[in-house]
Amino acid sequence: MMFNMKEAAMSTGATLRASFIGFFVGVLPGAGATIASAIAYMAEKKISGSDQFGKGDIRGVAAPEAANNASACGSFIPMLTLGIPGSGTTAVMVGALTLYNITPGPAMFVEQQDIVWGLIAALLIGNVMLLIMNIPMINVFARMLTIPLWFLVPAIATISAVGVYSVHSTTFDLLLMVGLGIFGYILRKMDFPMSPLILGFVLGEMLEQNLRRALSISNGNLVILLESPICKVVLAIALLLVPPIWKRWRRHRLKLAEE
């Protein structure tokens, strides 16, 4: 039931990779910990090449949990620097700060240093407290896995249906939820990665709104999308570095599989 050194050594690489992924996904406004966990799980499953994910492989637990914690820290960056919440939790914190006439943004690091560094210290203390609280509860959490699927699946479906219906109170939303669930099941059976689909679905509306805003500022000139130095660096990495690294990694995987 306890975490041993062999499992620690086995999951160290997965933890570091997932922490890196989770942090940068957390920086994206609106992404949140759920998407970070999903992306980290799928990425680690592809990298490891193991068929034991979901059957007891410790990396399948370490990767999403590391991404979850890292994204919580990353979501504070857009909130503190730009005043844009990176998740639902930071959105609530922005509202709480506004009630006290504190506006998150670059000036906050100068005018409200005690609050900024207090939040950073609270993240560290919170992780230590979670570790202390969760270790004695390992046995209880493990017993939750004994809940039968015939009870768990209908309960999750019911809660999801209530949540979907409560937004607009329309039957169409329930039918759409069922349709998307069937569509997602088909994609999973066909081994399509779910993480890019979820990320695109969540960020699609935000990307479209900001694209329209940028084009209205530039009177429809697409060059404005390439003027930022950050944009140039990201595009250069995506076009020049990622494809050769990906191809080399796939060749290495195929070579190991043949051996």
Can you put this structure into words, describing what you see?
By secondary structure, the chain is mainly α. The chain contains 12 helices and no strands. Helix 1 runs parallel beside helix 3 and helix 2 packs antiparallel against helix 3. The longest helix has 30 residues. 19% of the residues are buried. The mean pLDDT is 79.
Produce the secondary structure layout.
Blueprint: H1 5-27, H2 32-48, H3 59-74, H4 76-82, H5 88-99, H6 108-111, H7 113-134, H8 138-143, H9 149-168, H10 171-189, H11 194-217, H12 229-258
Helix pairs in contact: 1-2, 1-3, 2-3, 2-11, 9-10
Short description:
By secondary structure, the protein is mainly alpha-helical. The protein is built from twelve helices and no strands.
The CA-CA distance between the termini, in Å, is 35 Å
What shape does the CA trace take?
A: globular
Mean pLDDT over all positions: 79
Order of helices and strands: HHHHHHHHHHHH
Tally of DSSP β-strands:
0
Low-pLDDT runs of 5+ residues are none
* Rg over alpha carbons: 21 Å
Helix content: over 70%
Structural class: mainly alpha
Q: Helical stretch count?
A: 12
- Largest beta-sheet characterization: none
Strand residue content: under 5%
List keywords for this structure.
single chain; 259 residues; mainly alpha
